[in-house]
Request: fold
Amino acid sequence: MERDTYLPPVRVSVQSGLDAPRTALSQLLEDLSALKLDVEEAGTLELVVAEALNNICEHAYSGKERVGPIDILCRHGADGLHIAIEDEGNPMPDGKTPLGMPANVDTDMEDLPEGGFGWFLIRDLAKDIQYERKGPRNHLSLRVAVGLHPAA
Amino acid sequence: MELSSHTSEGMRIITVPDARIDAAVAIEFKDAMRGMIEDAPERLVLDLGHVNFIDSSGLGAIVASMKMLNGERSLALAAMTPTVAKVFKLTRMDTVFDIYETVDLAKFDVAS
Reply:
């Protein structure tokens, strides 16, 4: 069953940095509180957005003391939350989002990966992932299929 | 990040008091774990009962903590909340660690 009303679009803007993902996520979840997402849904949304923001802070704005804006726009639709994230950092390598292959865990302990899970999690949990470089800005859009049913 | 611990009968239980192990604290967490591991007995259990969110950086920090033990001692995980369990399951890291539903179950298993 679809909702008959949708939340108005939510916008969150933060400056990149170590605490940026936390700050942005807590504001985003607060602004979406009317959706009454359950723990599972909120966890999925938070993970996807956290990994996207981590990548922006660590890679797009990598280099010495480089900071810049991160703008998040979240629109609520019948098929979930449509999230657009923009930044003014470095473009994605080769102009594409990373493949996000699953990490190899069938290996000796000393060879277990300690990173590289981010894009795998995004691809696993989000849909309709699109990336575009427009002038000085990265535009990443994706959909998280949560908030589909009316709150009880 | 301050971790707390309790050691008895060859086992150290390390409790994470924070609600998040994410990119903002992953390095701090790893450093705190190094301190906890140094003089720990053979069996370590990480109590994640207060942690309701972990991202890939936090996951990497827990994997790094286990690697500090060089396979000579063990690190089990206990009391995972749903979102934390999901991250371990999706990345298949749940196959790498011994995972207990509660800290008490971890104690019981170790004692038996």
